[in-house]
Write a structure and sequence with these properties.
The complex is a heterodimer. By secondary structure, chain A is mostly helical. Helices cover 74% and strands 1% of the residues of chain A. A two-stranded antiparallel ribbon of chain A has the order 1-2. Classes of the chains: A mainly alpha, B mainly alpha. The A-B interface holds A 365, 369, 376, 380, 385-387, 391-392, 395-396, 398-399, 402-403, 407, 410-411, 414-415, 417-418, 421-422, 425, 428-429, 432-433, 467-468, 471-472, 475 and B 26, 68-73, 110, 113, 135, 138-140, 142-143, 145-146, 149-150, 153-154, 160-161, 164-165, 168-169, 172-173, 176-177, 179-180, 183-184, 186-187.
């Protein structure tokens, strides 16, 4: 048996990330006593180095390596760059939040880096086993991160819930993977799709496998009816981790869905389309209706996120490359908006009992008009009101859905998005129309966070006025 | 002309100016006010060349600006005006000046945010009227809700939150179906260009669905019976300046939508369903007029009267099909259509004036209940003079702008169907009744209580605002020819489009 040394070049960013993070893990134990923030700065440098590596190796060419288990293409590069960008912002917020809440530890950042490594593997996985490994690397790191605040009941409960339900989902998915392997005789995406195309498969087993895989995906994405963990975990987790959970892993989960459903199971698109339609419709309803009654902003944003996942699924339902591009665009936009939304909560966390009730935002316009305006941008962008970028995300998805012939689905989606507008407006109402309960000025934890939140929120408007480049990016990378 | 982007200036100067006012005007209310006034005056001056350099011989778009915006979907930043939109643009820039002036001493809280919101609204409203790409149109159309939502909710009356929520959700729900139609049309025509939509063939089923989607958007905005209920709430709660913008300009967007989208894009559906719009318009004219009669709140009364008057706009537009069937020519149809367009301009002046009048009283007495007043004219003779003039215009007295549009539409409706004419003409009685009764109860008679006895007459600022509007109302009433000339070619072209089958 020959042993061929595979080409390492396509996986260079992952390899470098892994080596540096491992070194950082060791270094952290040595220097953390003397230099408090060394690990944080090193983590940010590692993110930048990885981004530079990805940027340098950017190519639209598809390269498959490691014996067909790893793919490098422009989709992967774009997804990874956005994951890095968002994580960079998340780390910025996290450091001050952790200090404020007095559980600053270097491990937080190394765990964050490991979870990014997992996301990278998911984004680039080209067989079922690699995909599973990536998913586990990401999830295990996240469980640990949520549980880091050991003295907080809610956080521990959230971690437990996320762990148990996450494990259940992983189990489902693994079961599905095994059925697909059983039906097609391969774990490799291109072989699977080849076997399905040839028609020589046991379609019953394959369909069962598909259903389990879709359930697993729905769990990870947080699509209804597999969304139960989302609100509890978002609310219970420390805010900086909610910020992380609500943004970067969504991109990874979308990439995972794309790789499995499109790269491997495109031949079954007729079947997964109808599954996804059910998930999308339910997610849109839950996202629009249940969010209305929430009084905790993190919980409300969790439900609203379920609605946004519904929109992402709509793009995939179109089952053509333009549809996937629109879903990708929506995912990126949602992640950016999420950074601004959860970021605001993190930035204000030192005030009172944590600034995460909608009632806390009462009279925000009187207490800090600038931040009120920024949060207004976030709310209207999430609601999909022009001229903010969230509007274009919705319209692009609707376009592909209508083009694919699902006009009724588009009409349903717009009605749900009108309903969901209500709770975004309620936040704006609290900020602008209600009298403040406490008239002291509201200030973010530091000027730096003020600037970061403002930049992200303003970018929602600027991208909304000039959406062309981001749209082109999404459409050209698939 | 000179390649100067007038339309872009009209959009972006107020928007950027508004943001500027928002940021530098903090704690400097008088700076914010003067700056806002300067910006609106400059915007109005810049808009005048649209009128003076307008070519009345062509129905094609003028002052066109066109650059790619979102190239992947072939979305253009495409602006232009024709005879239908140009008067509305001028109405907007003109009203903006009065609106800023009207809020001068009234708004005490967060002046810079108030002024900024109105400036931004002004730019967006111009954008609605001049956008020739449907996505660009939609962006302006929806974006307008944000500042208006804030204005009603922040500076409004007691139930302002309910009113502003209702306003936002109602109009938003109406317009999302329009968005779906735009996307559908995009896949049929390959671009989002409104002019492109107007020249393509569409099957009957699709036309009907698109027509209904458009109707949902525009009927809410006009507003037509039975989706008018947001308007009285919004008007009563909104601050005076907000009511003026709502009545004078925002309602016109619905009417404009019919002539820019419904009639030219889906003519066959419009012909099939014209009975629906005509019926709802007649209900609005008659029934809402009666409803106006029994209101005890002045603002509500004027709000209902607005709905009733806007009924003439939609009636005049959709009479065309019946008239052409009866007479075989578009001559009579253009009477109705031009009447509708004049009615839009005139209603912009009159409803603005009526709400400003109520604002003047409310600022002094802090109540809008009709029963709290009586004999105001004894204490405020100048104000009484203007009030009676505006009321006469509202009732459609010849010599005021209110007469011209209504009379043209009533004439046209007699040509279409005698019964339409009779119902429409009933407004001459009902409109006169509720307006004159309002005048009688509020202005005439003896001074009713000591609060009224303490009233002071108009100050110079209020006098200037009222005077300007009075001049405009009389001018349009006596000499409407220039406005009709401007829109004549475009209306003729519109009627050709609206009556050419696109199946």
């Amino acid at each position: 048996m020959n042993f061929v040394i595979p080409s390492f070049a396509p996986a260079m960013p992952e390899i470098v990330l892994l080596v540096l993070t491992s070194l950082l893990l060791i270094a952290d134990t040595i220097w953390s006593k003397r230099f408090q923030f060394a690990t944080y700065y090193a983590a940010q440098v590692i993110l930048i180095v990885t981004a530079v590596l990805i940027f340098m190796s950017f190519s639209s060419e598809e390269v498959i390596t490691f014996n067909g288990s790893f793919i490098h293409d422009s989709f992967a590069d774009v997804m990874k760059l956005f994951i890095l960008l968002i994580t960079f912002a998340v780390f910025l917020f996290s450091r001050e939040y952790l200090l404020q809440k007095q559980f600053y530890k270097g491990e937080y950042f190394t765990l964050g880096l490991f979870s990014i490594l997992g996301m990278f593997v998911m984004v680039s996985a080209y067989n079922l086993i690699t995909m599973f490994i990536g998913l586990e690397i990401m999830s295990l790191s996240l469980y640990a991160m949520i549980a880091m605040r050991k003295d907080n009941q809610a956080a521990l409960e959230a971690a437990m819930k996320y762990f148990i339900l996450g494990a259940l989902a992983t189990g489902m998915m693994l079961y599905g993977f095994s059925m697909i392997y059983g039906a097609t005789g391969s774990v490799q995406f291109d072989t699977i799709s080849g076997v399905i195309a040839s028609g020589k498969v046991d379609s019953t087993v394959l369909s069962f496998g598909l259903v389990f895989v879709v359930i697993g995906l729905a769990f990870k994405l947080g699509a209804a009816p597999f969304h139960m963990w989302v609100p509890d975990v978002y609310q219970g987790a420390p805010s900086s981790i909610t910020l992380f959970l609500g943004t970067a892993p969504k991109i990874a989960a979308f990439a995972m869905m794309y790789r499995i459903l499109v790269d491997a199971l495109q031949g079954l698109s007729g079947e997964w389309q109808s599954l996804l339609i059910m998930l999308a419709v339910l997610s849109l309803i839950v996202g629009a209706v249940v969010a209305i009654v929430q009084d905790n902003l993190k919980r409300m944003l969790a439900y609203s996120g379920i609605g946004h996942v519904g929109f992402i699924l709509l793009g995939v339902i179109a089952a053509n490359p333009d549809g996937y591009s629109s879903a990708m665009f929506y995912t990126i936009v949602y992640a950016i908006t999420g950074v601004a939304g959860f970021g605001m909560i993190v930035a204000l966390a030192k005030i009172g009992n944590g600034f995460d009730k909608i009632a806390d935002f009462k009279g925000m316009n009187a207490r800090n008009p600038w931040l009120a305006l920024m949060f207004l941008f976030v709310m209207f962008s999430m609601a999909g009101i022009p001229p903010f970028i969230g509007f274009y995300a919705k319209i692009v998805v609707l376009e592909e859905v209508i083009n694919a012939g699902f006009v009724w689905l588009a009409v349903f989606a717009v009605i749900m998005s009108v309903i969901s507008t209500y709770y975004y407006l309620m936040v704006v109402k609290a900020m602008y129309f209600d009298a403040p309960e406490d008239s002291s000025k509201v200030e973010p934890m530091s000027n730096q966070l003020n600037i970061v939140v403002s930049i992200v929120a303003i970018s929602l408007l600027v991208l909304g006025l000039m959406p062309s480049s981001l749209i082109d990016l999404a459409y050209n990378s698939l | 002309m000179f390649g100067f982007p007038i339309l872009s200036t009209l959009i972006w100067l107020p928007i950027i100016g508004g943001l500027f006012v928002l940021f530098i005007g903090r704690d400097k209310p008088s700076l914010a006010k003067w700056l806002s006034l300067a910006i609106t005056v400059v915007t109005f001056v810049v808009s005048i060349p649209l009128w003076t350099n307008f070519d009345t011989t062509t129905a094609s778009m003028q002052f066109v600006e066109k650059t790619p915006w979102i190239s992947h979907f072939n979305i253009m930043y495409h602006l232009g005006v024709d005879g239908l939109s140009m008067p509305l643009v001028l109405l907007t820039t003109f009203t903006q000046v009065l609106v800023i002036a009207s809020a001068w001493d009234i708004i005490k809280e967060r002046v810079e945010q108030f002024m900024g919101a109105f400036l931004i609204m002004g730019g967006i409203m111009v954008g609605v009227f001049v956008a020739l790409d449907s996505i660009l149109f939609y962006v302006f159309w929806e974006a307008l809700l944000i500042p208006m939502f804030i204005v009603i909710g922040k500076w409004g009356g007691k139930d302002r939150v309910f009113a502003t929520m209702k306003f936002f959700i109602y109009t938003f729900l109406g317009s999302v179906f329009m968005l779906v139609s735009f996307i559908y049309l995009y896949f049929q025509s390959g671009s989002f260009s409104i002019l492109g939509f107007q020249s393509m063939h569409i099957g009957m089923t699709a036309q009907i669905l698109i027509f209904l989607a458009f109707l949902a958007a525009f009927a809410v905005k006009v507003p037509m019976f039975p989706v008018h209920t947001w308007l009285p709430d919004a008007h009563v709660q909104a601050p005076t300046a907000g009511s003026v913008v709502l009545a004078a300009i925002m309602l016109k967007m619905g009417g404009y939508g019919f002539v820019r989208f419904s009639l030219p894009i889906t003519p066959d559906a419009a012909m099939t369903l014209d009975w629906l719009v005509i019926g709802l318009s007649l209900v609005a004219i008659f029934y809402i007029g009666i409803v106006a009669l029994v209101q005890s709140d002045m603002k509500k009364l004027v709000a209902y009267s607005s709905i009733s008057h806007m009924g003439f706009v939609t009636l005049g537009m959709f009479l065309a099909y019946d008239i052409i069937q009866n007479t075989g020519g578009i001559q009579g149809a253009s009477l109705g259509m031009e009447g509708a367009m004049i009615q839009m301009i005139s209603h912009g002046f009159i409803s603005g004036a009526m709400f400003l009048m109520i604002g003047v009283l409310y600022d002094r007495m802090h109540t809008r209940e009709i029963s709290a007043y009586g004999g105001v004219v004894n204490k405020m003779p100048w104000f009484g003079f203007f009030a009676v003039l505006f009321a006469m215009a509202n009732a459609g007295l010849p010599g005021t702008s209110g007469f011209v549009g209504e009379f043209m539409v009533i004439l046209a409706s007699f040509k279409a169907n005698v019964w339409y004419g009779i119902v429409a003409a009933s407004t001459l009685v009902i409109g006169a009744a509720y307006t004159l009764w309002l005048i009688k109860r509020v202005y005439f008679g003896p001074v009713s209580n000591e609060n009224v006895a303490k009233l002071e007459d108009l100050n110079a600022r209020e006098f200037a605002i009222m005077g300007t509007l009075a001049v405009a109302i009389v001018l349009v009433g006596v000499f409407p020819a220039p406005i009709i000339d401007v829109m004549h070619t475009s209306v003729a072209n519109l009627l050709v489009q609206a009556t050419t089958s696109k199946l």
